[in-house]
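Aim 2, interim progress. The first record below pairs a target sequence with its structure tokens.
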Amino acid sequence: MTSTRRTDTRATGGSPDAPGRRPLPPWGWGAVVLAAFLAGAAAHATGVPAPYLLAGLVVGVALALSGLVATALPRPAYRVSQALAGVLMGGYIHPAALRAAAPSMVPLFVVTVATVLLSVGVARLLERSRLFDRPTATLTTVPGGAAAMLAASDELGADTRLVALAQYSRVGIIAVTAPLVVPLLGPTAPAGAGAGEPHSPLSPRMLHLVDGAAQPAGLLVLCAVAVLGVRVGRRLRLPAPVVLGPMLVTVVATFSGAAHGFRPVGLLQTLVFACIGLEIGLRFTRDSLRHARRALPWIVASTVVVSVASALLAWLLAALTRLSFADAYLATTPGGINAVLATSVATNADVGLISSVQSLRLFAVVSLAPVLVRLTFVRSGRRSGPPASGASETCPAAGRR
């Protein structure tokens, strides 16, 4: 198949303007974030789990599909929310959490490998539909960092639009279902332990932006850790460096005792989750859905199959270890790491364990995805053949909207 190297900038994280439509001014984006926050506060009041993530996602989808917002979240806001999410994840990883998780690491590793192999098997089924070439099928199903998969898709000649839609569809499905499913899976940590979101958006606790007593000093340390982390992540060429770099620096600072009291909480944490939800929701545009209208049922079906199979593997893992079903499910679910983090925090799950497992899988998958694609080429001895005649509707010529 002739490579269709195109990039739907809305789907891959860029934010160009749609033709004939002016970009939102800064005050417009402020209004969008405020709307997501207020929607999250309303959802919180009605008892919806992970309310700010879900509200941001719903608001983002509504704005994108209605055409009121035709661009992605501004890149600075996106990067700040990702970096702060990385700091938040790293803040939950400490020696006690790792010691508690150590006996379960081997089973968790086995389940993670099984999830990746399952995804590759589903990719082969997608390829048989003749709507996906081999690189596209592989990168749409592999559970890894969406941004990293999109970067790999351009390099490997996959259809970037389909990869973007599939990856963010899975993230969206997990973001919507996990907060609703996790409370039904079994008990997690007791509420009120301070790990979850504030009990009320009007609570004085919302005015605390970091978890230390000295707020100005904590905020300065938070900024320093986030900026340094992004630079370290890029220097080390980590996958998803804007997330994993700050996470790594936070872990080092926490383990060494060099800094403490800088983890985002209160209003800052809820804004991070609202921005993450908005970023996911704004990916779903009418153009991207129109582009993939024939492939969309296959994308949704493959996502459901992999998610259900992962839940069954998590049930088996919980039965063989001391982990709760909820923690095992969140640690192994093939969703976006930020969406899983928000759900873990909101449901008082073992965030240290979940962040560790999800991060390690992200490293492994991003490293192995190009290898998996190229190995399948070597085994088959050829590139994927031309698509069936109906596939041209799914893979339009470059530049066509």
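The second target in this work package is listed in the same format:
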Amino acid sequence: MAKIAVLGLGAMGSRMARRLVAAGHEVHVWNRSRPATEAIAGATLAATPRAAAQGAQAVIAMLRDDEASRAVWCDAESGALAGMMLGALAIESSTLTPQWVRGWAAAAQAAGAVPVEAPVSGSRPQADAGQLVYFLGGAADAVAQAQPLLAPLGAAFHAVGPIGAGAVVKLATNTLLALQVGAWAELLPLLVREGLDLDVALGALAGTSSWAPVAGYLTMLMRQGNHAPQFPIDLIAKDMAYVTGIGQEGDLPLAQALAARFAAASAAGLGDENMTALVKLARG
């Protein structure tokens, strides 16, 4: 078993840490707020990312955004890279911009660590069950070294290319999800306004090639008004802002429209609710 540090104990990081503890690893954890770290039974609490990383064979981060990633890894005094052993794995699982991921990897290499980007597809239920889908970016030998350590957390591991490729694939995945959420947030109210029986209409649509695997889940939550956070609007709004920053301005007009829609939902006070709460904008 390995000594592994987990940095960031939000909805996903906390679940990952618990599964690593259950798998028998020696797990050291850090989070900005103390109560989150105290909820990880069997893990050792660290005062700083640097302290958590000291002596660890691998350090895994699951953080909110580029800014948090930069601070947690790269702070000269408290950052994880300042405490890592030579040759230890630096594993970044946050959803970040490819630009920053490449900068982070360069900083990790300069510190003597081995960078692997490992963003995931899946939400809280998949994290609880160890059924996340990983998009791994980095040198082939580094990816091969990281995968056994990540095995308790995931059901599928895709090596997608060099550092930065994982971020692009993850943002593409979330854009496809946002597209489905945006479409159903408008189409469900449309069906209601037109007086259709939703069970009949959705049953007919479910038999077509345009029905995506996630559609049943999204429409169920929207119909129930169940917007307990799994993937909060504020986070998907952040990801849409990130994806529209790739390439030249105007390259992604549909993604820009989605970004504007989710930003409007955040501005309307829906940011802490699940992505499906976007339907509230259409319903007024």
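The chain has two domains: 3-161, 168-283. This observation will shape the mutagenesis plan for the next reporting period.
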